[in-house]
Design goal:
By secondary structure, the chain is mainly β. The protein has helices at about 1-10, 10-20, and strands at about 35-45, 50, 55-70, 75-90, 90-110, 110-130, 135, 145-160, 160-170, 180-190.
Length: about 190
Amino acid sequence: MKSLLKFLLIIPFISTLVSFAGDNTEDDYDIRLNGIRAGYQASDLIKGERETLDSRDGFYFGFVRKVNLVPLLKLETGLEYMQAGAILSDTSEIRLNYIVLPAQLVFKLGPLLALGGLNACFKIDEDYIVNDNEKNLSDDQSSSFTDFSVNGGVGFQLLMISIEARHYWGLTDINNGFENRYWQLGLKVSF
C-alpha cells in the first residue's frame, strides 16, 4: 500500500515534466493549450474528520499547460502559488504559502467541465500571527515542507474563459495531525 501511495504522489512531478518537455513544432502547436488561472481560496486545517479551525481567506494564481489525451479528456499541469492556513482564534492565525505542481484530468462535454487530480505542494513561507505580531516557530512546531492533496471540481467554459470550483483534501499530516483542506473558486483564461 505504501508503494502505491508513493507512486501516486509522484504523478504531479512526472506529468509536469512531460507536459513542459513536449517538442512542439509549428505544425502541431495549439496556442490555446496554455493559460493562466487565478481566484479566491478559503482554507482551513482539519484534524481527523471534523473541522477544528476557522477558514482563512486567500488567493491562488498560476500558469496552466494542457495536454490532449483523447478528444474529451485533457491533462492539465502547471505551476501555481496559493495561500493556505487557518484562523486559530480572534487574535491568532497561521498563514501557509505554497508553490504547487498540479496534475489534473479535465473531462469536457460541451461547455461543462469535470475536474479531478493530484497536487504536490511545497511550503515557501509560514507565519504564526498573534495580535498582529509575527511569532517565531521552532523547527518541531512548524508545518512540514511538503503536502500532497487530491482535488475534485466542476467548471463551465465559454470561449477561452472558464469558471472553476474545486475542493482539495490534504493527504499528509502537515503538523500534529492537521491536514490542509481548501476550496477554490476562480477563472482560467486559455490563450
